[in-house]
């Protein structure tokens, strides 16, 4: 492991800590006063600061330091974490995240913003609370991190090491002088794992030393406490290192001993004359290295036994053995050379680390490797399907053992595929967490007060889906705060809590992930939407639309209900873009709204973008795949159930209700005239608005799992078509975009959507 | 014979730095992620010296040090505290809990090794 | 004194004479009181101050009892550490009779 790898680990850890920080702050914001929550928040910032310091990331260190100082005030109950305080802290968390990203990827941060927050944090730490300011020296001073010198890329950062009384740089070389040292340890010195022997050893390394051990205090054997301090020493030391060096030897013992260091002046003088001083041999190095062979072996045996007891030890000793080959750089400067040597041992080290921290049995794998595996499995699925097909075509008996084997193969392939997909599945948590920042920023800009509530953050979905979710979700959240929620004044006037709530939930439902975004705002102003649609020629002035249909108008291109384009969600990017990105993911989106109570956007997305369960159908001699998740049931229409109305509209009656009939071949322009419903099959599908439509196709070929091949990536976007796949017989089939087809069928009046059919 | 160092720190970054530094310097390194785990592995780690962080979940450095000092077999093991705070208050609390010495983060490997050498025979 | 004729007892010191060993060593020495004792320090790797204190208190005690208290075999580490901390064990080294 080299410094770059550790740095990478550091940034990964930062991400985790930032998430921890944010969720902790949000908990505090919700009134949680558990000290452990405060501690966790403090630790997160503290930990980022610690690592950043080691890598010389100055900006990060200094901001984290100020943040930490303020958090410490909260931790020690000197600062009440009320909403105002948390507002500053949440913003600070955002800046900390920005600084971390800047440190990782280069780039810059909004310096004015971070300077402003530093001021606010400092104000919180001292200003507001008089008694706290008085009691807390840290808060009073302007906290700035120790300046750190530049450092080479992989080197450790030799910074800010401050033995307090040793802070000044190395004392200048001094001519040798003799010091008289009186050293009387207290019992505590020994109780804390220190030993006068060690201190005297270090002292003797400074120069020429003579020593007298004062045993006057030593009681009789019977009355002594074997763990009490009785010995004291009078030492004469001739050294050129100076008094500072002597005192620094006793740095750790300072409180646990009496120490007196005086310059004896000049050469060998000394009050030591009356005492018998014992000269100490200059070289005591043997003390460290010397190990009698016999006892060493004994301890090794003991160690061996311990290893057998505990696998952990095995790993540790493996690492140790491996590292034997390493350069034993006493200084341990992780220089370029030595880090290179470390490489062969890194596996063992990793194992040791794994063993030592047995808590999480996980491995980190490059996403590339997983993607490659998923691609290969996709090919395997296609291959298996082709194999099945050709066996079926060539084997008319149909009952041979080959068929059975094929079935098993199919099952196995399926299981492999599921397992591989599970590797890439990840909780939506990180995306949800990003949203809380968006909410804060937008609330700030609009002067609204907003609370984001998230649920189901641990719902898992394919990473590729997660990655593409952030864009549309961000836009929708902005929209919800900007357009959905009212201003605090209006809310109060409406008898609502001045603070609006945006609720983001994720859950699994029938093989898909459903993400809901609900606000408790004013709901959609249908009259306004309708008027706007009429003004923009989206609908005819006399069009008779249901509430649901009006609500869904906001997904049409170029539609914006805000009176003026706002900074936030304006700029011509509307919900139509959101809808298209969701559709590109194979998802659906719809809205339901209650005036005065708010709106709910519901997105339903596939769990993976790699495979799809589909129904293979024929339409005008073309083979199409309809996603199985969209299909409610299939039925054979009878002539008596078909009812025409208007110029070209037809309905099918199903169990005493009517459902619009959608001619897929006509909409996709596969044929010029309407097909006869009685000669085909109707697929009852649920459209995103909740209503049902009957898609008319010529015939059903069967059900199968297909591997999705992006049409955009390989060809170009085709309206009404979601993607393509390769069937068992090697033919390419198009996967139907059911929602687009339904939408196109719905609106004689919905011109932009109609162009879909024309283009298709 | 190699000296065995038990490190207790909840930061993966610091753990890795300690591991690399200590291994390069010829120590055998055993690592724990917090005070609770530190006390759990004490027996198997059988350390010559312990390096511990202060701010940790579950059981912080102060509690961990007290735990070690109460352990009949390991109470004499020198304990160095890794701390970002250089203020006397933190050091004092660590010392009262029974710490032998301290290393101020961000640590310089030389000083880390130096501090370890100082408190071990 | 009857004890004068008691056979010489020997005490082998542990390799690591640290805080924990101090109490144990103290107890073992107390049980040997009344007999001349010969200490084997050949296996000693580390000498902590607390154990050195116990040993020196023992030496004094034995001297008061006029019994011999000698170091028979000593390791290099033992010699060097005692020298370092100014504890003179030369007078206590076993002499060939």
Description:
Chain A has 6 domains: 3-140, Four Helix Bundle (Hemerythrin (Met), subunit A) (Up-down Bundle), CATH 1.20.120; 164-289, Alpha-Beta Plaits; 293-356, no CATH class; 367-426; 428-606, Histidine kinase-like ATPase, C-terminal domain (Heat Shock Protein 90, 2-Layer Sandwich); 611-759, SH3 Domains (SH3 type barrels), CATH 2.30.30.40. In chain A, 45% of the residues lie in helices and 20% in strands. Chain B is of the alpha/beta class and 121 residues long. Chain B has 5 helices and 5 strands. In chain B, helix 2 packs parallel to helix 3 (61-70). The radius of gyration of chain B is 13 Å and the shape is globular. The mean pLDDT of chain B is 85. By secondary structure, chain C is of the alpha/beta class. Helix content of chain C is 40%, strand content 20%. Chain C has helices at residues 19-32, 49-64, 76-84; strands at 9-12, 16-17, 37-41, 46-47, 69-74. In chain C, the strands form 2 sheets. In chain C, strands 1-3-5 form a 3-stranded parallel sheet, with helices on one face. The longest helix of chain C is centred in the middle third of the chain and has 16 residues, at 49-64. The two termini of chain C are 22 Å apart. Chains in contact: A-B, A-C, B-C. At the A-B interface, helix 1, helix 2, helix 9, helix 12 and helix 13 of A face helix 1, strand 2, helix 2, helix 4 and strand 5 of B.
Question: Could you name the key traits of this structure?
Answer:
heterotrimer, B: 121 residues, alpha/beta, Rossmann fold, five-stranded parallel sheet, 5 strands, 45% helix, C: 97 residues, Transcription Regulator spoIIAA, three-stranded parallel sheet, two-stranded parallel ribbon, 3 helices, 40% helix, globular, phosphoprotein (chain B)
Write the layout of secondary structure elements.
The complex is a heterotrimer of chains A (760), B (121) and C (97).
Chain A: H1 3-29, H2 35-54, H3 58-75, H4 83-105, H5 111-127, H6 130-135, H7 137-140, E1 177-185, H8 187-191, H9 196-204, E2 207-214, E3 232-239, H10 242-249, E4 257-263, E5 278-280, H11 286-289, H12 293-309, H13 311-324, H14 336-342, H15 346-356, H16 367-394, H17 401-424, E6 425-427, H18 429-446, E7 450-455, E8 460-462, H19 463-484, H20 488-493, E9 500-509, E10 512-519, H21 526-535, H22 547-552, H23 575-584, E11 588-594, E12 598-606, E13 611-619, E14 622-627, E15 631-635, E16 642-645, E17 649-654, E18 657-663, H24 664-667, E19 681-686, E20 692-697, E21 699-707, H25 711-714, E22 721-726, E23 732-736, H26 738-746, H27 751-759
Helix pairs in contact in A: 1-2, 1-4, 2-3, 3-4, 3-5, 4-5, 12-13, 13-15, 16-17, 18-19, 19-23, 26-27
Chain B: E1 4-8, H1 12-24, E2 28-32, H2 35-45, E3 49-53, H3 61-70, E4 79-83, H4 88-97, E5 101-104, H5 109-119
Parallel strand pairs in B: 1-2, 1-3, 3-4, 4-5
Chain C: E1 9-12, E2 16-17, H1 19-32, E3 37-41, E4 46-47, H2 49-64, E5 69-74, H3 76-84
Parallel strand pairs in C: 1-3, 2-4, 3-5
Helix pairs in contact in C: 1-2
